[in-house]
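Q: Could you predict the 3D structure of Integrin beta?
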Amino acid sequence: MGPEKDVVAVLCCMLMINSACLAQQETTNECLSANAKSCGECIQVGGKCAWCTKPDFTGPGESNSARCDYADNLERRKCPPTSIESPTGKVKILKDKKLTNRSSKLPAKDITQIAPQLIELTLRSGQPQNIDLRFRRAADYPIDLYYLMDLSYSMKDDLENVKKLGTELQQRMKDITSDFFIGFGSFVDKTVMPYISTTPKKLQNPCGNNDEKQVCTSPFSYKNVLSLTSEGNKFNSLVSRQKISGNLDSPEGGFDAMMQAAVCGNKIGWRNNTRLLVFSTDAGFHFAGDGKLGGIVLPNDGRCHLDGKGMYTQSDFYDYPSVAQLVQKLGENSIQPIFAVTEEFYNVYKELSNLIPKSAVGVLSSNSSNVIQLIIDAYDALSSEIILENSKVPEGLQFRYTAVCKDNKVFRGEQGRKCSDIQIGDEVQFTIEVVATKCPNNGKAHEVEIRPLGFQEKVTVLLRFECECQCHTSGVSNSMECHFGNGTMECGACRCNEGRVGRLCECGTDEVNSEDIEASCKRDNSSTVVCSGRGDCVCGECICYKRESPELVSSKHCECDNFSCDRHNGLICGGNGRCECGKCDCFSNFTGSSCDCSLDARSCIGRNGEMCSGRGNCTCGTCTCTDPKYQGPKCEHCPSCPDACELHKDCAECKAFQTGPKKETCDKCEFEVKKVEEIEKRESTEHTAFCKVKNEEDCWFYFNFTYAKSDAEVYVQTKVECPEEPNIIAIIAGVVAGIVLIGLALLLIWKLLMIIHDRREFAKFEKDRMNAKWDTQENPIYRSPINNFKNPNFGRKGVPL
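A: Sure. Here are the predicted structure tokens for Integrin beta:
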């Protein structure tokens, strides 16, 4: 092995050790680690911790905290299930009215949009409990709308349109609800400098410089002009009498007005239904801290200060409210603000709306002519969104929301609090997981309200906490079992009185460090180590250190444990016995110092039914082969035998290539194979068979087969050797070419023979001619085919005609 491989091996070992450490950290037993002294402390550690109340459960050297463990661990340690205390939380529905859609005759108080209405929830630390809520939007739900208007001079033309708002808005709202109330309030700003001019003339008519003919009312902070009423004509009548006022700076005192409208519920006339507050202005707003400019330093107290005429009387004494105060009071009173503002200030109020749940913003036209449509659009947007909000919960308590909204869309976290685009008749569901991380509020009962913002309905959750075990109530004070009455016998253990310590309260606190008491914690007089170095001496008794379950240190001097025995295959006592005080107590059919020797000989029986196939002896469940040629767990394999290759061929083929006769039953083969690029090809030896065999496709593949201890090692060459497929085209072309060539050759031979034959005949003819005795004569009967004729006029001179 080269240096590079050494480095890789070391790194791998380090990674394995690190992984093992991390795994151990993740599996830490929180119950044992908590060192709980009582059942109540134990069940608050975690949701899975349990306490054993069996009086004699703890042995020598064990403290009472050993009673706190996971329930299955306690059972393994012989604690009867009836003695295991592990209370659980529960959910009890106390009131669950059916969800309804409101008919025209159904009173508003009988409308139910959210269910259940009352829940009792018993919580134990670390055990989550789920609350399931249903919400269905009802039809014809009552609406209260309070119109809060800026009456500074710049809103002069807007006031004219608002004067006839009552009847027109009521007419339009009939399409939404038959139960509609409307009210009106107005605001300007605080009546001190520098917000208004305090000169007598300006106090009488603050609009003098703007329009000499315009008569304005004296400046004021906020006035409730009309409490909520169903009479639209009354709204028109009272609003028509209102006059514009004026101030100096651009921001207005609208926050003062909104605060009073929110907290003065009785004087405004808010009912227990949908509450809308329309805030109409063309300017910005003053907020907390701005009052200091006018010498007002007292923070806003968030209380109602309206007199009998509806005027805000403490405007000059309390500062403007902060945004947080406003959000709180609007939420507490389930009021949904609609900001109807000019385009210039739209972005300002949009940012404000983002801070106020269930609020909307709309752009107001220059003369407020679009205010009715703006209100209806804003109401549709607000009423179609359901947002759940819970009241303050005790420290150590968590609420986690999950929403199943329209079309079964699931949302979690902060998005799990709300559902959007909810139309009349739509039903959505919310699941609230409640988890206690400790015993909140000292175990006292607590009440939490969950309500959909903008609605008066709510769900009340009565919280009760399991901070003590049931056995706590049956404890016996000054029990004789606790050393003559020095403690309370509670849940199987002694809870010592003040000044007493020890498992049975047998010692006083002034006796704990006594040398005589400490001597009894040593194994013998020559020992200087207390409790074998694995425990603390308390009242002359060793309290052994706790370890991760199931490891245990025990006995009088903590000299015994259940984890220091010999190991086999990485397991204490090979997993075949119990570790008792450092020695293995083996189960039946096992023996040896680490219980690694099996007395069961069935694993040695070969396929032929004989022990070790008749070729060896069975020792500790393993065959020792007497014939050196045979190997394997049952001495059944002989690598050097002639038939070894044929015997293992099918399994080697199916394991390596997933082919062959055994490919369907390959899992029954007794060995695994390792694929290599190339294996050594030589003759088989006594311990290894080197094989070259053919598969079903008539290809050669190579493998070798040997045994290392009890496991077969089979190496298969990945590349098989197959005969090359014939070239059909070449064969056909060759045959055709051969036929043609043979034909040509035959023709040439025939031609050559004919030439030779002709030459021989000609030579014979010439020879015969030379040997002839006659001369050449003309045939007497031969007649020449040529005749000559002469023209009689040829050669004459011409005669004139």
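Q: Anything worth pointing out?
A: The first strand starts at residue 49 and ends at 52.
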